Amino acid sequence: MAAPTPDRLDTMQRIELAAGVEVELHPAGPVVRAKAWLLDVLWMGLGYLLAGVVVALSATVGGMEIGGGVYLLFMFFMSWGYRVVFEVRRGATPGKKSCGLKVVMTSGAPVTWTAAVLRNLLRVADFLPSCYLTGLVSCLLSRRFQRLGDLVADTMVVYRQQDASPVFLPQESVPVPAVPPAVALSWEERACIIRFNENLPMWSESRREELAGQLEVLTGMTGPEGVQRLAGIGTWLRDS
Amino acid sequence: MTQLRFEQEHTARWAETEALIKSARLKQWTPDQVKLPGLYRQLCADLSLAQHRMYGARLCGRLNALVIDTREIISKGALVNRRRALTRFWGSCPQAVRREWRLFWIGMLLFWGPFLAFIIAAYQNERWIFAVLDEGTMSSMDEMYGEDSPVHHLRAKFGSNFMMFAYYIEHNIGIGLRTIAGGVLATLGAVVSTGLQGVLLGAAFGYTHYQGNAERLYTFAAGHSSFELMGLVICGVAGMRLGMAVLNPGNLSRADALKVTAKQALPLIYGGPALVLIAAFIEGFWSASDTPGTVKLVVGGVLWVLLGSWLLFAGRGADEA
Question: Do residue B208 and residue B269 come from a single domain?
């Protein structure tokens, strides 16, 4: 079972896997992708520089023609192949990787060779008329921040999930006695209260009271008692 | 079952899965990794349960990440059968060209129209050429195909065959790929690029007629002309096909139409640049050799016939879509 999805404000994409379970992917927007692109340009510039030095050195030994030819092939690879190889083998170009991004199919599966070729081929069109303007418009119009290349290749750029955090065992300093809620709550309301409980240790007392005060209708209390009661309802919801 | 018990019961298995993923990422293969598909299914069940029982964002988030990572590892195994891909390409590219015969003939017209028009126009009035070619191009044309340039001068200027081969790869395939990509913008990029190549090549040929040794140009170009020009036209067809998905998506949304069309156009997207690649081999290593001109013309003609027959007949049969 999954959460009902009303009109959502966030960009989270729910994807149903063959195993019948839904996972969440978080598509990356234009700003972070522009940053990744800039980093890639820097990496590629470094590559060109190194290749230039190597060619210049080898030219003194093997002649300018072979060196020039190798450099031209290198240029060809850098313009059309570099990103493809990295995206298929590593899931992301070095720039994307350092921004915590990766490329996946819209099904969430790892990107295929054909898809990586297509999305990087179409980069030319996305760049037009200048500075990825077409790609930006396409990103903003599509649900998953897809530029034209992504639409054609059926891919998207998502945030890499952070390394799975260590096992979370709820540790309350003082165990809150469970209190059943006075009225039946909807799925979303229950999820909200459980989330409140989870984040409780991170907030200051006044912030807790402020948030719990919003639910005075439910708890019938304000201040520290309101927090206590809401946490109690959360415990009841979680443990029953 | 409380969240605490749920985590305590399964935490060892999750840790095991995490360890296996880590070693697989580092390409350290252990026999235990055969357990991953099973662990994956169990993880999926865990995640479903955790979502259903509202075990909170942290646990669900962790399981979510774990499911995605495990799936990435176990679905990497899908291998491409290279030989089969190649034999399928042999038939599927001509099939795709024949399926898109309207766009193909539009592409042919877009290229050959300006090409022939410019040769004829140059014959009437050479100023047409000067409108298109700049001085540098003309002087290098003079050097290569001038009235009294020595035969091997074709390469003396540029050095070895290898370097020219690399140049053709970088330059010509680059044009082909840009033609395809530009086509997605409502076919405009492909149309302009294909036509522009016709104009430029037409002007270059016209200039040689007017000012140089046309025989040398024709014997040089004969060998690779078929693959290069048809490759370029097929790149144009691929680009226009993508653009048509935007212009006329039919019953689909434009985004879906692009996705579906790209799949259909794939043999063209690979085929066009592949032909230009073959042309680069011929042009780099053979076209400028001192083989007699007659032989070059005959071989060039034969290649045109072979390429034409391939496009017309290859892949005909039961599985033609």
Answer: yes
